[in-house]
Structure formats: structure tokens, C-alpha cells
Amino acid sequence: MHVAPARSRPTAYAVAVVSLALLSLLSIACSKPVAPTLAPEKVELTSFSAAGVNVNVHLAATNPNRNDLEVRSMTGKVRLDGKFDLGSTTVDKAVTLPAGRTTSIEAPLALPWANIPALLALAAAQRDVPFEVEGTVNLGGDLLNVSAPFKITETATHAQIVRATSASLPGLALPAAP
């Protein structure tokens, strides 16, 4: 009579170790990225025209993750004098944020005029006007993404406001900037 050798069975300890290792790998592979920190650097009014206002937003983005993140888009909303909404826009922006590093992001935002009466009132006020750009940067891929907020405050000179209003409404006589 032939006796087959006994098969070794995995011990409960070995099964637990392998299971824990697999769960750890799955957890790392599927973990949601942490949003980068966004530090406002500056916002530039690049032009005013009859079509609207153009601004360049400059941010320093620090990626705390172990993997690179891809910037997909930036959305920005501009408000003049803390109360006059100029509208919002979204631009596609492809930038790679390397893991563990800080990267500069620059994005041009073009906003059509949404509030011409407010622009006229600000031009007539004969003073510099504070404005802010508030928005989000969308990062990630198709299956997994995260948004990070930003806010930058700057000042538009009275001369810039007068030029913007004059360009928006040709033929309108406005007082010259001092």
C-alpha cells in the first residue's frame, strides 16, 4: 500500500501576512491624492477690451504626494471692489506637478464683461479699485481627481478702469485719470 506524502497547508499566520500585504498594496494604489497647497504669487491685468478683461494668474503649487499630479484645468471668478462680479471662466491647463516639489502655474483667464454699469460707476469714482480672483485648480485623471482652491487680491488703477470702460463703450467721454 502506497501512502501519499502529506501536503503542507498554509498556516493561518502566512495567510494573514499575505492578506495584509495585498490590502496594503491595494490601499496605496487606490488612495485618493492629497490636494496640493496653492500659494498665490500674483495676478496681472493683461488687458481690458470691449470684449472683457484678461488676467494672468500665477500660483506656486506644492505637491505633497508620492506621485506626480496632472493639472487639468483652472476656474477663476473675478470680483471688482468686493461687490461687482465680472463672471467666471474655465481654461484647460496641462501642467505636471512633480511629487514632493513646488511648481509655478500661470494661467490666462479671459472674462467677458458681465456688468458694464458697475464698470461705469467705478470709472466715475476716480479711485483705484481692489479686485480679487477666486477659483480652483482641478488635478488628477479621469477616474480620480481633486480640486484645490485659491484666492488672490490685487488693485486696478483708476487709469486702467477708465481705459477698460472707454474701450467697452466707444464714444463715451469719461474724466481722464489723474
Your description of this structure?
- With 178 residues, the chain is an alpha+beta fold.
- It has a single domain, classed as Immunoglobulin-like (Sandwich), CATH 2.60.40.1820.
- 22% of the residues lie in helices and 47% in strands.
- The protein contains three helices and seven strands, in the order αβββββαββα.
- The chain has helices spanning 12-30, 116-124, 158-168, and strands at residues 37-48, 52-62, 69-80, 84-97, 102-112, 129-140, 145-156.
- The strands form two sheets. The protein has a four-stranded antiparallel β-sheet with strand order 4-3-6-7. Strands 1-2-5 form a three-stranded antiparallel β-sheet.
- Strand 3 (69-80) and strand 4 (84-97) form a beta hairpin.
- The longest helix has 19 residues, at 12-30.
- It is elongated, with a radius of gyration of 27 Å.
- The termini are far apart.
- Residues 24-28 have low confidence and may be disordered.
Task: Record keyword descriptors for this entry.
178 residues, alpha+beta, four-stranded antiparallel β-sheet, three-stranded antiparallel β-sheet, 7 strands
Topology of helices and strands:
Layout: H1 12-30, E1 37-48, E2 52-62, E3 69-80, E4 84-97, E5 102-112, H2 116-124, E6 129-140, E7 145-156, H3 158-168
Antiparallel strand pairs: 1-2, 2-5, 3-4, 3-6, 6-7
Helix pairs in contact: 2-3
Q: Which parts are unreliable, with pLDDT below 50 for 5 consecutive residues or more?
A: 24-28
- Can you tell me the number of structural domains? 1
Which topology does CATH recognise? Immunoglobulin-like
Q: Main β-sheet, in a few words? A: 4 strands, antiparallel
The total strand number stands at 7
Number of helices: 3
Helix content: 10-25%
